[in-house]
Amino acid sequence: MPPWKKACRRLIGLLDSVVSFAALALTVCVMLLAGYSLWDANQVYHAAEATVYEAFIPTEEDTRSFDELRAINPEVIGWLRVNDTEINYPLLQAENNSKYVNTDVEGNYSLSGAIFLHCANDPRFTDYNNIIYGHHMENRKMFGDVELFAEQAFFDEHPYGNLFFDGKDHGIEFFAFMLVDAYDDIFTLVNPGQQAGSDAAEQAYLDSVYEKSMYVREMDVTTQDNLVLLSTCTSDITNGRHILVGRLTDTVYPEAEEAANLGTGVDRLEESLGVPLWLWILAAVLLLLVILVIILRRRQRSNREEKKHEG
């Protein structure tokens, strides 16, 4: 066989091995990236789990655990729970409304943020309009369950929540659910009557709530009540916000049954697989490496046979 043909065959064999190795390496990289993406998403959702802070839930009889949380972060001012949902979180308040958008309860950076009271509100909830913010997240994290109230049947069957602040439990009676534009400034007013100088402005505000609500519950709400707004973003409309509106009461409303945390998609995937997801990823990488070794050995064997044939 002419030398140039031998050289060409060797070059083709080498290029074939390089392409096979590159394809295998790309596959491994994609799998590793996918595994990291799943792990990273799981970390974000885990940080937003209501169960992370279960040990700190306060009661009027025993606030020791809650005080421990406040020792970690003095900006923890209370606890919010919406009955029969996954909304069961510490409530915080900072000097501005941007801090807890990307800061967790313990003061660490977190994409899931925290549930927080408007910076202009009195932490004793003496204002007419008390606005509480939280991220809308998938898998029922943070204020993700607010969207459940967009279904009238759910709204009708779930009228209660509870709010712990100033060392005491309080109830919330939800009476309206709104889908509004995020740039509608009226729903960021803390004391509309105070700014206008009369109770008429508070009544006008309440009338606006009823007017712009998708659903309302017949209740005798007046300007003497203290309103609580749970506000979160939604993709239902451009720049949209879902707002669940209630009023504070001295009555505490126990849940019919303890809410079950459904976990994240990764949690359910791992449960169905029976072992941690990272073990499956590791097994896949090892399998690909074994395949690579087999390919290389076959190449070597083919080259040896080719040399023998030429000899």
What does the radius of gyration come to?
A: 29 Å
End-to-end separation in angstroms reads 10 Å
List the strand order in the largest sheet: 1-2-3-4-8-9-6-5
Number-wise, the strands total 9
- Unreliable parts: 259-264
The profile of the biggest β sheet is: 8 strands, mixed, barrel
Structural class category: alpha+beta
Strand content: 15-25%
What is the overall silhouette? elongated
Mean pLDDT: 81
What does this entry look like structurally?
This protein has 311 residues and is α+β, with helices and mostly antiparallel strands. The protein has seven helices and nine strands. Helix 1 runs antiparallel to helix 7. The chain is elongated. The model is unreliable at 259-264 (pLDDT under 50).
Keywords:
311 residues; 39% helix; alpha+beta; eight-stranded mixed barrel; single chain
